[in-house]
Amino acid sequence: MKALVLAGGDGTRLWPLSRRDNPKQLHALFGGRSLLQSTVDRLKRGFAVRDIFICASAERRDQVLSALPDFPPEQFVWEPARRDTAAAIGFGLLRIAQDDPLATFVVINSDAYVSDPDEYLRVIALAGQEAARRQVPAVLIGVPPTYAETGYGYIKTGEHLGRPEGGEETDALFAVERFVEKPDAATAAGYLNHGGYLWNPTLIVGCADRFLALYDKHLPQHAAAFRRLRPLLANACQAAVLAAEFASMPKVSIDYGILEKQPGLLVLPAEFGWADVGNWRAVRDILAGEKSPLKRGRTVEISSSGNLIVVPEGKVAVTIGVDNLAVIETADALLICPLDQVHEVKKAVEFMDKDAELRKFV
User: Fold this and answer.
1) Is 330 helix (H, G, I), strand (E, B) or coil?
2) Which of 10, 102, 165, 204 is the most buried (most CB within 10 A)?
3) Where are the beta strands (DSSP E) in the chain?
4) For 219-241, what is the mean pLDDT?
5) Quick one: 344 and 245 in the same domain?
6) Do residues 303 and 320 touch, judged by C-beta distance below 8 A?
7) Residue 194 pLDDT
8) What's the domain range around 307?
9) What's the mean pLDDT when you consider all of the chain?
């Protein structure tokens, strides 16, 4: 089985720490290892290094290589341009299919938190066995929700298909009925009470060539570009041609481009302490769950509680009479925001990106 790690995102909701040229997956938010390094460390417990592929933007080559200095160069897949997850995943699968078109794979985001790596790896292996045995387009891994989260996508489970072969007594496989993208608070609460809805961490398991065939059906422009790209992958001299072909693909996510349109997908619910490190509230909640300090740097808090505070070395942050704030400072920027409104950080970054004088801070 192969693991395809996506490491090309921007992480704008973790501004000002996460920036365009130094995104969140390259930062150490929990312990001394970056999110990308922690993802690779986790996978190496169950995968040989030769079976782990890192898909990242070519413009961030130096930062990614610096984060993984001992990783074999042939295990990197460099995107010539960023065209969202449908292009990134298809391009990574082209590389995997070069060696073994029938290989099973799992797509892994490099910016997730997992507290139980052994269960995580067990479930991935089980999903891979079911994808190969049933010859389905893909088996997704879903996470039972523990609260009414509005920032995640959801999977609605359909028909119960029984226990996966070789699975544990609590394992169960379901047909995918439909996908729901980031519901409002009332709808998310209804999902939690109703049951039958899972968080969608975009953990996709399947067969390389079988999944690539879905591009012909749902994303024909991508499929045509992939056919032209196949003979160029091993030829470094064709970098300019490869970049032009890659840039010809429309920007579209794998969820919208393929998963939401494809019948016959299956989902395997599993609990392994997963969280999307998508905003500062998620960081606060993960640190609280680990019983880790919610402060980084020197702080003084008077009549204050529940705050997440990050300040650079040589400075001190003082809070008086405020609760549940994100106070995040870097050398050139400061964010102060209620933790229940951190989803608005992305809007602030988009605003700055449109302003010529503020763009340098993005």
Assistant:
1) coil
2) 204
3) 2-6, 52-57, 76-79, 104-109, 112-114, 139-143, 154-160, 174-180, 197-207, 266-269, 274-276, 295-296, 298-302, 308-310, 316-320, 325-329, 334-338
4) 83
5) no
6) yes
7) 85
8) 293-361
9) 94
288 part of a folded domain: no
Angle 35-41-44 from CA coordinates, rounded to 5°: 140
Clarify whether residues 236 and 184 are in a common domain: yes
Predicted local distance difference test score (pLDDT) of residue 236: 56
Whether residue 349 contacts residue 333, with contact meaning beta carbons closer than 8 Å, is answered with no
Of 4, 28, 1, residue with least CA distance to 14? 28
Q: How far apart are CA 126 and CA 147, in angstroms?
A: 26
Task: Decide if pLDDT at 141 tops 70.
Answer: yes
Interatomic CA distance for residues 83 and 219, integer angstroms: 13
Nearest Cα neighbor of 84 from 343, 258, 207 is 258
Q: Could you report the per-residue pLDDT of 298-337, keeping only the tens digit for each?
A: 999 999 999 999 999 999 999 999 999 999 999 999 999 9
Q: What's the token pair of residue 280?
A: 């500062």
Q: At what angle do helices 239-247 and 220-229 cross, to 10 degrees?
A: 170
When pLDDT is averaged across residues 89-115 and rounded to a whole number, the result is 96
Question: Tens digit of pLDDT for each residue in 286-303?
Answer: 999 998 999 999 999 999
Residues 47 and 124 in one domain: yes
- Which residue bears the tokens 């996908």? 179
Which DSSP symbol is given to 323? B
Task: Look at the chain and report how many structural domains it folds into.
Answer: 2
- Do the Cβ atoms of 208 and 198 come closer than 8 Å? no
Q: Is residue 223 part of a domain?
A: yes
Residue whose structure tokens are 């413009």 = 59
> For the whole model, what pTM was predicted?
0.94
For residue 355, the one-letter residue type is D
d(CA 101, CA 210): 9
Q: What is the pLDDT of residues 234-277, one digit of tens each?
A: 665 567 888 888 888 999 999 999 999 999 999 999 999 999 99
